[in-house]
Design a protein that fits this description.
Number of strands: 11
Oligomer: single chain
Shape: flat
CATH superfamily of the largest domain: P-loop containing nucleotide triphosphate hydrolases
Length: 470
């Protein structure tokens, strides 16, 4: 349970979580606050008496906002921020049972798999030092092999008698001079580039596509595991450097030291109490008005998602996973549908509604420059590899932001993604000619408002062209 406390709960306060998200996402304060409160409530629920903890379920969040305003980016950054199993899935991947598509329960199976990987990684870190010592001993066994027992020709015929007369081979002594000499050289790093022959387990190839249909996915996993355990491991000899052999042996020794049954048990608890599922494109399975035709499948997806969101038990190869305390965050643009078009039961399972606002000119200016690894920083770094220094004037950044805002208003509003399109078009010529420019000694390119107008203004003004190019 200590590991669950260590991995599953974030100690950051809501303000600290928002500050961390602010480094990467501009604006959308309400969405950040809602996510931060939901994460903090996880911590708060752990401080309650045990008899009360089961009754306090997480409050699921529904994010509403057009594409490119930061919904998915919040999910991405949240995944890096939280020390908990996190999975992002598109609702459009799933269809009602009987239609072609994935079974919705695969969300929880994938979450359990991520949880196992997290716990296994943690356990590997715990046994790292011990595994390293054992790996060194195995390396020494390869570098300083045991002396083979000698046997006379008569011994082959009269093995039992001869063996009694033959003196036993000298037992391997870890402290003997040859082994100790090699150990010291190994620890000093003098043998890292030496090539040795190592016997390693030959990983069996997974049977791709076996029982891959919808609700049989779980059965497919179990059958493949069962067949894998029945087939004995095959070993093959590989020639590798001592440095590479050390890594292989450390990994093998760590696997021997880890109790996978305990890992699976802990991972299931971690997924149940700390798992976070981000359901993207939820609006694409919303049904407008009466259902009929293809809408039957969409409503079916909602009805299949419902039991998982409200709390059910899903069978996974690591054991049954209860979904009562998993936090669900759903997001959608809701251009063609409204949140009220979701079935009432599902609406009720997302009590916290957050609307993300469309981005304006000022937001675009900040997006270009403020976040860590902002777009302009990325393009500067990319061209720096060719020896070209890009310099963006403040007025150029302002003009780019204005153009992005104008084109979004005139055509489809795709939010911050418009900046990617504009910057690619703006720097197309420089990117293409960069190697030749560097060879000619032209190492500095200045981007000012005139350069932006020259490259983009005509396209932005021409409504017909902008629809296809920008």
């Amino acid at each position: 349970m200590d590991l669950i406390k260590e991995l599953g709960v974030n100690e950051q306060t809501p303000k600290e979580i928002v500050t961390e998200l602010d480094k990467h996402i501009i604006g959308q304060t309400d969405a950040k606050r809602s996510v931060a409160i939901a994460l903090r409530n996880r911590w708060r629920s752990r401080q309650l008496p045990e008899d009360m903890q089961d009754d306090v379920i997480p409050k699921n969040i529904l994010m509403i906002g057009s594409t490119g305003v930061g919904k998915t980016e919040i999910a991405r950054r949240l995944a890096k921020l939280v020390k908990a199993p996190f999975i992002k899935v598109e609702a459009t991947k799933f269809t009602e049972v009987g239609y072609v598509g994935r079974d919705v329960e695969s969300i929880i199976r994938d979450l359990a798999h991520i949880s196992v990987r997290m716990v296994r990684q943690q356990r590997t870190e715990e046994v790292k030092e011990k595994a390293a010592k054992l790996a060194v001993e195995r390396l020494l066994d390869v570098l300083v092999p045991e002396p083979k027992k000698t046997q006379s020709p008569l011994g082959r015929l009269f093995g039992s008698v001869e063996d009694q007369q033959q003196p036993e081979a000298e037992p391997v002594d870890d402290k003997k001079p040859g082994r100790e000499f090699v150990r010291k050289r190994l620890e000093a790093g003098k043998l890292e580039d030496e090539v040795i022959e190592l016997e390693v387990a030959d990983a069996a190839k997974p049977m791709v596509g076996m029982f891959s249909g919808s609700s049989l996915e779980g059965m497919s996993d179990n059958i493949q595991d069962m067949i894998g355990s029945l087939i004995p491991k095959r070993f093959k000899k590989r020639k590798v450097t001592v440095a590479a052999a050390r890594k292989i042996l450390e990994q093998e020794e760590a696997e021997k030291l880890i109790d996978m049954e305990e890992v699976s048990e802990t991972a299931v608890k971690l997924a149940e109490h700390s798992g976070i599922v981000f359901l993207d494109e939820i609006d694409k399975v919303a049904v407008k008005g009466g259902s009929g035709g293809p809408d039957v499948s969409r409503e079916g997806v909602q009805r299949d998602i419902l039991p998982i969101v409200e709390g059910s038990t899903v069978m996974t190869k690591y054991g049954p996973v209860k979904t009562d305390h998993i936090l669900f965050i759903a997001a959608g643009a809701f251009h063609m549908a409204k949140p009220s078009d979701l079935i009432p039961e599902l609406q009720g399972r997302f009590p916290i509604r957050v609307e993300l606002i469309s981005l304006k000119r000022e937001d675009f200016e900040r997006i270009l420059t403020e976040p860590q690894n902002a777009l302009i920083t990325q393009y500067k770094a990319l061209l720096e590899t060719e020896g070209i220094t890009l310099e963006f004037k403040p007025e150029a950044i302002g003009r780019l932001a204005q153009l992005a805002s104008d084109v979004n208003e005139q055509t489809e509003d795709i939010g911050a993604r418009r900046l990617h399109t504009l910057l690619e078009k703006l720097l197309e010529e420089v990117s293409f000619d960069a190697p030749d420019m560097a060879a000619e000694g032209k190492t500095k390119v200045e981007i000012d408002a005139d350069y932006v107008d020259k490259r983009l203004k005509d396209i932005a003004k021409n409504h017909d062209l902008s629809q296809f190019i920008l």
